[in-house]
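WARN retry 2 of 3 for item q-0093 after timeout on previous attempt; input resubmitted unchanged.
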Amino acid sequence: MKTIDSRSAHALVEQGALLVDIRDPDEHARERIPGACCIPLARLGLAPELATAQGRAVVFHCRSGMRTRTNASILCAAAGNCDAYVVEGGLDAWKQAGLPVERDARAPLELMRQVQIAAGSLALAGTVLAATVSPWFMLVPGMVGLGLLLAGVTGFCGMAHLLARMPWNRPRGA
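OK item q-0093 returned
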C-alpha cells in the first residue's frame, strides 16, 4: 500500500479519487474531511462505494494514520484493482497541512472517549470514597479494571454498549 502526504491526497481527491474514512461513524460525525465517505474497517468488504470505484484511485485515512498502517493489507484487498493510497498521518496531518475539515460540535464525543471519561471518573470516585468513607468502595475501581481487562481480551466493551444507548448518542429524531 502506497502512503502519500496530505497535500498529494488532496490533489488526488480533487482529480476524482474516492476518499474513504475508515474510522467509526461517531468519530466521522464529529470531525471529517469534506467529501469523505465513512466506511469503518468492519464494513470494508461490504461497501458498495468501493465496488463502484473501479478505475478511480482510492485514498484511505483514519485519525492519526495508525489504523490505516496497521490494516494496510485489508485496505489493499478492499480497494481491489484500484490504485490505493493511505494518507500518512491521517486526519491529524490533513489538519496540520491547513486543508479543509468539517466539524460538528453538536455531535457527541467519540464513544471510546466517553468510555475513558466514565471509567476514569468511576475509578477516581471509588478510590476517593474508599479513602474517605469506606474501604468497600475499592470494589468500584476494581470492577472498572475488570471491565477494561475483559474488554481488551474479548473485544466486547459493556460500558461502550451502555453509553451507545444513552440519549445524547442517539441520532436526532430517533
